């Protein structure tokens, strides 16, 4: 299938499918950076690996806001993103990013120099900062998927498995990042535990991705069309080769059979991140609006119906 497919009607007045163009490359990078950063921070915090925590916070604090603002196009109005937490996952996510970075930095400083001894703050400040940062990090891992799932216009996104995919991919990226950059600092038992966790998460990622496609394909004609784009159309080569083979299968094999070797882990890390980003970008590119009059058109035989 190509863009010449008659069911893709672009900006014309014909009945058919229109690709969403609101979220593109900038948002894909923003979502990807937030999920990788939050996952890395949480896994590094659990294993008490300070460089990993710092890297995760840097990703969440720099690339996520930069590319999100690049998408918005009006940075001076970006403050409005946080004023609707009662109705918007974007607002909740923006607040969570702020809490993660703010309290995460506070915890890292306390972990390094001790806020109590240095600034005379109560000893419990570091503990409070830790738990607030963890709670915010969990929200950041999931909220991108929650924002997508709330978009009922796109069947491919409107699935309870989409937030699950965000959480699973975030945890996988975090575990692989920690294992790759913290190899020397981690004990053998910790490396083995991370390798096992990564294999389980990669299998879970694969199952969730398959579930998203199955759900979309069965839910509506628009969902089936999106799945067709990903499996048979112009996005199929990237989805198959990068998302599935490079991003899931290759890391699984590398970690399963070479998890005791750092080189294999680094290669698995690079491959997984490439597949993760491609998955995020593909989910944006394959989403189509469901024609409101699609079923009516089909019943009376109008052009553009299936």
How far do the termini sit from each other? 15 Å
Spatial shape: globular
The CATH superfamily bears the name: Formate dehydrogenase/DMSO reductase domain
**Within the CATH hierarchy, at the fold level, what is the topology?**
Formate dehydrogenase/DMSO reductase fold
CATH architecture: Up-down Bundle
Protein model, in words:
This protein is an all-alpha fold and 306 residues long. The protein has a single domain (18-290), classed as Formate dehydrogenase/DMSO reductase fold (Up-down Bundle). Helix content is 72%, strand content 1%. The chain is built from eleven helices and two strands, in the order βααααααααααβα. The chain has helices at 25-46, 50-72, 89-113, 115-119, 124-149, 161-181, 188-219, 221-231, 236-258, 262-285, 294-300; strands at residues 18-19, 288-289. It has a two-stranded antiparallel ribbon with strand order 1-2. α1 runs antiparallel to α5 and α8 packs across α9 (236-258). The longest helix has 32 residues, at 188-219. The chain is globular, with a radius of gyration of 21 Å. It starts with 17 loop residues before the first strand and ends in a 6-residue tail after the last helix.
Summed up, what is this model?
With 306 residues, the chain is mainly α.
Question: Which features would summarize this protein structure in a list?
Answer:
Formate dehydrogenase/DMSO reductase fold, two-stranded antiparallel ribbon, 72% helix, 1% strand, disordered C terminus
